[in-house]
Amino acid sequence: MLKVGLTGGLASGKTYIAACFEGFGAHVAYADQFGHETLRPAGEAYAEVIREFGMEILDRDGFIDRPALGAIVFADKEKLAKLNAIVHPHVFQREEAFFEQVAEEDPAGVAVIEAAIMIEIGSYNRYDRVVLADCPLETQIERFMERNKASREQALARIERQMPLEEKRQYADYLIDTSGPMPRTKELARAVYVKLKEEAA
């Protein structure tokens, strides 16, 4: 089994590539989803996050209000680092459980984790291969503006929080250019998947 990290930048097309890979036969999981699960009332990080950030991050039903928590941590790098230090170890445990399950069910399979910041936090080296969804900055800006009905300034502010794609390229084993039409991106993704499948076997 091959462990693959799929990453990119904001609005770079990584989620579309994940869907393509899944359609080709890969086993796909999402780090964001694991993170959200750890913050639910029964989740591993729930109590510790409340201890760190206070009861004011809870909604009236006792769930962590993620936008409220996000407003706190994205305005303060130290608080974001604290949140990551609480949540990420539990996310990694869930990833390992996912890999173990795939290895048992499909020993020659391709197991993909889609995660936006694996390079920034250094977890990219936990995978056998890293695939990057790649496109020009202007494409990211236009897509985010259209998708989120946002201004150019809002798009840039979000994108600038992440490592630029040109820096991420040096960490990737495979680049998939997502700047063209979706059918073209799908074919480029298929070509990469064929190589990953060969490596997994």
Describe the structure.
With 201 residues, the protein is an alpha/beta fold. The protein folds into 2 domains: 1-26 and 109-201, P-loop containing nucleotide triphosphate hydrolases (Rossmann fold), CATH 3.40.50; 32-94. It is 53% helix and 12% strand. The chain contains 9 helices and 5 strands, in the order E-H-E-H-H-H-H-E-E-H-H-H-E-H. It has helices at 14-24, 31-38, 46-53, 66-73, 77-105, 137-148, 152-159, 165-168, 182-200; strands at 2-7, 27-30, 110-114, 129-134, 174-177. Strands 2-3-1-4-5 form a 5-stranded parallel β-sheet, sandwiched between helices. Helix 2 (31-38) packs across helix 5 (77-105). The chain is globular, with a radius of gyration of 18 Å. The model has no long low-confidence stretch (mean pLDDT 95).
Query: Helical residue percent?
Result: 40-55%
**What is the number of strand segments?**
5
**Shape-level CATH architecture of the largest domain:** 3-Layer(aba) Sandwich
Q: How many individual domains? A: 2
Low-confidence stretches: none
The termini sit apart by: 7 Å
Number of helices: 9
Overall, the morphology is globular
Label the structural class: alpha/beta
Average of the residue pLDDT scores: 95
SSE run: EHEHHHHEEHHHEH
Radius of gyration: 18 Å
Tell me the CATH topology of the largest domain.
Rossmann fold
Widest beta sheet: strand line-up = 2-3-1-4-5
CATH superfamily grouping of the largest domain:
P-loop containing nucleotide triphosphate hydrolases
Biggest sheet record:
5 strands, parallel
CATH class category of the largest domain: Alpha Beta
The fraction of residues in strands falls at 5-15%
